[in-house]
TrEMBL record:
It comes from the Eukaryota. It is a multi-pass membrane protein. GO terms for cellular component: plasma membrane. GO terms for molecular function: G protein-coupled receptor activity. The keyword Metal-binding does not apply. The lineage of its organism: Eukaryota, Metazoa, Ecdysozoa, Nematoda, Chromadorea. Its main location: membrane. The keyword Hydrolase does not apply. InterPro entries: GPCR_Rhodpsn, GPCR_Rhodpsn_7TM. Keywords: Cell membrane, G-protein coupled receptor, Glycoprotein, Membrane, Receptor, Transducer, Transmembrane, Transmembrane helix. This is G-protein coupled receptors family 1 profile domain-containing protein. Pfam families: 7tm_1. Residues 33-245 form the G-protein coupled receptors family 1 profile domain.
């Protein structure tokens, strides 16, 4: 469908350009930090097994941050070329960032719930956790998260096609490019899920804190703390802006709401810092990669080489002396 080439006013274009000045650098920084996280997770088999979910989380946040960079740079180019005009919803979905926003918003939300659920099981059902929380199970859970986000993207494409006769703003937000029905569905995923993950993490943290008095829960308490910090930051930096953006122009009018997208960039960048300060083996592996092994050689950075299960197996295995033969006993 061809829409009338309705151009934005100079005042609105000036505001959009001011937004883009922040989108590009913040998005670039967040993209770089998540690339580092993914590289650290992929660098060793032990890291992939231990931090696989975190790697998927960082990948999703990387897509979200990359969408901000593309959004800012392409909008700048369109404004400079005088091509920033109204277009159909389906043509709007042809821009690269709606795809990335959908997957980059929903994938981290799914992964946060998986991480929180794993911590709850580890605290309250430790035997079941040790039995079923295998590397294979974690891989299956990560694949399900990716599959769900891709399925949702396909649904978004369908809704965008159904709204192909609707002309919309050239800003091409998720709601503009897919319609308000799917936009509401998208928010129903990326808003409640981090809240749910936060509640699960609080339950796990309180349980681990209580059980640490009588059982060996110190290590699990640290794991819960990392997951809790990630979920809490997601609620503050992503959920709240998404709520405000969803109802903008329909239920409320908030000035300078475009700056809320910067919160998405900040949320996408916190993964690296959270794990750097709270996970010693992750921090040491990152420093080793960035320094090409120099810091590891000269500062003796410790990297874990055994999982807890293997370590416990070694500690619980008694070393028995070799049995003496009857002939030896007779000679003695």
């Amino acid at each position: 469908m061809q829409c009338n080439a309705t151009r934005s006013s100079n005042a609105s274009l000036t505001i959009i350009l001011s937004y883009n000045k922040f989108y590009i650098p913040f998005g670039s920084f967040a993209t770089a930090t998540n690339i580092l996280c993914v590289l650290v997770v992929l660098s060793k088999k032990r890291m992939r097994e231990k931090y696989g979910a975190f790697g998927v989380l960082s990948f999703g946040d990387m897509l979200n941050a990359l969408a901000m960079v593309l959004l800012g740079s392409i909008r700048n180019q369109q404004i400079n070329d005088n091509s920033f005009v109204s277009l159909s919803s389906f043509a709007c979905f042809g821009r690269p960032w709606p795809y990335l926003f959908i997957v980059g918003g929903q994938l981290p939300a799914f992964v946060l719930v998986v991480m929180a659920g794993e911590r709850v099981i580890a605290v309250f059902k430790p035997i079941a956790y040790r039995t079923y929380a295998t590397p294979k199970t974690r891989v299956i859970a990560n694949i399900i998260c990716v599959a769900l986000s891709i399925l949702s993207l396909l649904i978004g494409i369908l809704f965008s096609y159904l709204n192909r006769e609707v002309c919309t703003s050239p800003t091409c937000t998720t709601i503009n490019s897919t319609g308000r029905l799917y936009g509401t569905f998208n928010n129903c995923l990326i808003v409640p899920l981090p809240f749910f993950a936060l509640i699960l993490n609080i339950i796990a943290y309180v349980g681990a804190k209580r059980l640490s008095v009588s059982t060996n829960m110190e290590r699990e308490l640290k794991k819960v703390l990392v997951s809790l910090v990630l979920a809490a930051l997601a609620v503050v930096l992503s959920v709240v802006p998404n709520i405000l953006l969803w109802g903008a122009g329909v239920y409320w009018n908030v000035p300078n709401l475009g700056y809320m997208y910067i919160g998405f960039c900040c949320n996408s960048a916190v993964d690296l810092f959270a794990f750097f300060f709270l996970k010693e083996d992750f921090r040491n592996r990152l420093l080793s990669i960035l320094s090409y092994g120099y810091l590891k050689r000269y500062f003796n950075l410790h990297e874990e080489t055994e999982t807890n299960v293997k370590r416990n197996m070694v500690q619980n295995t008694s070393i028995k002396p070799p049995a003496r033969s009857r002939a030896t006993e007779t000679v003695g």
